[in-house]
Amino acid sequence: MRILVLGFTGYLGAHVAERLRVLPGARVLGAGRSAGAAFPVDLATARPEELAKTLAAAAPDAVVNCAGATGGDAVTLAEVNARGPAVLCEALREAAPGARLVHLGSAAEYGPGARGTLVTESAATSPAGPYGATKLAGTAAVTASGLDAVVLRVGNPVGPGAPAAGLPGRLTALLRETDRGPDAVLRLGDLSAHRDFVDVRDVARAVERAVTAPAPLPPVLNIGAGRAVPVRELVRGLAARAGFRGRIEETADGGRSVRSGEVSWQCSDIAAAEAALGWRPVHTLDEALAALWEADGTR
């Protein structure tokens, strides 16, 4: 089985590629903008006919799209998160219409959730900013493509190799660099929001199941822990794992997430993924934080 992974050197892509490589008979092919890509692809700028030639050369049985932008201006986000999946689908219809497409979406597509409520795949979508809006546009392109495709709407991934662009990775780097003694002070922004944190290794397992599951699959599946956790709990857990003995202060100028600062509650219902893929997360948040701290961060 030939599996083409776009964005294979990114945070999610690297874990996905590693997981897929252990599948019996699988040959994982890397695609993306990095120098080590077997198939150079830039979804932000590629023309459909050019990408179709690349896909024909790769001859994949399945394509996993882990490519995406989490930061940058609205134009950058739209080019990668909205245009990219649309171009990919058009090229796949031309070059490999029988290939399974697994596209990684985001729980940010839903927007603010009602406190205490699990969000199902049929819930209305009302993204709070450009990131969620562009990811939602990418999902729309995939689900309307007519291909054998599924979108995995991923919650907040955490675990080994987390990038500094997100709070877990940024906090890990900060804890490694700062004094961790009793007089240390860690100043962060408002940590009262609730998030559905899912171990990145569980995300990779979900992708594996989505690649190999028999068709047809539901168009969208939530991939999360199915549990809303205060961001404060993640911060305290990681600080404890690092041996931080100082004080954590939440300050107004400590920074807010550009992607989800207006969303106070986010939690996904993952029952559909269990029914369709036989998947549930197996790692706890504490295990994810332990793996994040112990990793060398050089994935």
TrEMBL record:
NAD-dependent epimerase/dehydratase domain boundaries: 3-224
Source taxon at top rank: Bacteria
InterPro entries, alphabetized: Epimerase_deHydtase (IPR001509), NAD(P)-bd_dom_sf (IPR036291)
Membrane spanning stretches: none
Similarity comment: family membership: Belongs to the NAD(P)-dependent epimerase/dehydratase family.
Name of the featured protein: NAD-dependent epimerase/dehydratase family protein
